Amino acid sequence: MDDHSVLKTTPLNALHLSLGAKMVPFAGYDMPVQYPLGVMKEHLHTRAAAGLFDVSHMGQVIVRAKSGDYADAALALEKLVPVDILSLKEGRQRYGFFTDDNGCILDDLMITNRGDHLLVVVNAACKDADLAHMKAHLPDCDVTLLDDRALIALQGPRAEAVLAELWAGVSSMKFMDVREVPLHDVACIISRSGYSGEDGFEISIPQDHAMSVAKALLEHPDCEAIGLGARDSLRLEAGLCLYGNDIDTTTSPIEASLEWALQKARKAGGDREGGFPGADRILGELADGTSRRRVGLKPEGKAPVRSHAKLFADADGLKELGEVTSGTFGPTVEGPVAMGYVPVSHAVAGTQVFAEVRGKYLPMTVAALPFITPTYKR
């Protein structure tokens, strides 16, 4: 889709253009891939100070039980995700994913207990399908897309200091806490979370006020606007999956090394064991293991190995193992980083594999994830 006239725009589109952003089509939206600072400097600035990202293309969805009871909404949504939502405390958020009947991943998402309802944030490319999925399978709930709100992410070690200029109470929040507070006299929903591996926040704003709040944050000398290019390299260094690359309807949560996201209550022997699509496969893989796993990969040299590069056990390309799902240059680690799927026999850190790049077989080493040490405020 090259014709920008048919792309959707976010409420911050004019801001990106005024800041000199290079705009590209992404998930049906006109989005900033980088600003004049450039991807490398934007990445390093986020790791050192604070970066502001427009993620308004993502879907913000309210799930409210028709009974008005949180427990009813939580138990209804648990029929679609292998996650414990019932015990999620008010003002807390949890990572999860929709699974299909094959035990594979339809989308990954964030789920928040907002007291009398759930706030579910889904990926832009899956937004329409996710909305239809919830409406079809949650008959006792009202499912509403909030298409009148923007979403921004403020990430980095100085994120708290930047946000404190607008709301002094920010220091009381811990990782995955969610609060509704006024920023710049605008009622915003703030979660202490993000997708960079750094401390930070995601802020849901009424779209008519998105520009004023974003500009107020950017007035801080430590805060720079950051595009999709650096967002991708930041999340990859942090070992975080991108839906459509590292996880999709061909990957199970266990193959994807996401078993940490399944709570005890939904596992075998738990209070609410199973009951989600694909439970037999997923619980079976938890018990018995899988044939392949998502792993970190570090190529030798400075050249990145991109997604879809085939992985082999040998330098002659005789025994194919799998493929790279994400790959780029990691500015923080000062070298290329990648993720991909390999058989469990080759999934141990330190194992050497080879990637096919333009007819050559380049050595890569299986590495522990993440590539950087996350700085979430626990």
Could you describe the 3D structure shown?
This protein has 378 residues and is of the alpha+beta class. Helices cover 19% and strands 33% of the residues. The chain contains 8 helices and 19 strands. The strands form 4 sheets. The protein has a 6-stranded mixed sheet. A 6-stranded antiparallel beta barrel has the order 14-17-16-15-18-19. Helix 2 (39-48) packs across helix 7 (228-237). The model has no long low-confidence stretch (mean pLDDT 97).
Please specify the SSE layout and strand pairing.
Elements: H1 13-18, E1 22-26, E2 29-34, H2 39-48, E3 50-54, E4 59-65, H3 70-77, E5 93-99, E6 105-113, E7 118-122, H4 127-137, E8 141-145, E9 149-155, H5 159-164, E10 178-183, E11 186-191, E12 200-206, H6 210-218, E13 223-225, H7 228-237, H8 279-288, E14 292-299, E15 310-312, E16 320-330, E17 335-343, E18 352-357, E19 360-367
Parallel strand pairs: 3-13
Antiparallel strand pairs: 1-2, 3-9, 4-7, 4-8, 5-6, 6-7, 9-12, 10-11, 11-12, 14-17, 14-19, 15-16, 15-18, 16-17, 18-19
The share of residues in helices is 10-25%
Gyration radius from CA atoms, angstroms: 21 Å
- The CA-CA distance between the termini, in Å, is 41 Å
Element-level helix/strand string: HEEHEEHEEEHEEHEEEHEHHEEEEEE
Topology, number of strands: 19
- Structural class by helix and strand composition: alpha+beta
Uncertain segments? none
* Major sheet description: 6 strands, mixed
Main-sheet strand order equals: 10-11-12-9-3-13
Report the portion of residues in β strands.
25-35%
